[in-house]
Amino acid sequence: MKKIFFPLILSIVMLFSAACATGASNSGPATIHLTDQNFAQASITVNKGSSLTVIDDTATPHTISNGSWSGADAKPAQEKGAPTVSGLQFNGHDTQSIGPFATAGTYHLYCSIHQGMNLTVIVQ
Known about the structure:
19% of the residues lie in helices and 38% in strands. The protein contains one helix and nine strands, in the order H-E-E-E-E-E-E-E-E-E.
């Protein structure tokens, strides 16, 4: 029983370790998509030193800046260490880059055109 049990456990541990290492070493470009009135996801994690590719999948224009919506109020604000994003224009079906994000932390971006359109960027 021990002869079968030990290799099985060792195989499971090695498989788990490889899966974790693959997820942690993902150094590909971070990408977020824009829908008609929102970011396709509310938050994204990027690696320190990398940029964020933003893709507008619709014909809807967007204007992205540092800050966030709080209810019906736009709150422009730039966290310390965040790249400056001030009125980045998307005219529909276009792609732009934000960053690089040089400092680990949590940063907020919003679209000044669409109430409630917020993105949290977590840099690790």
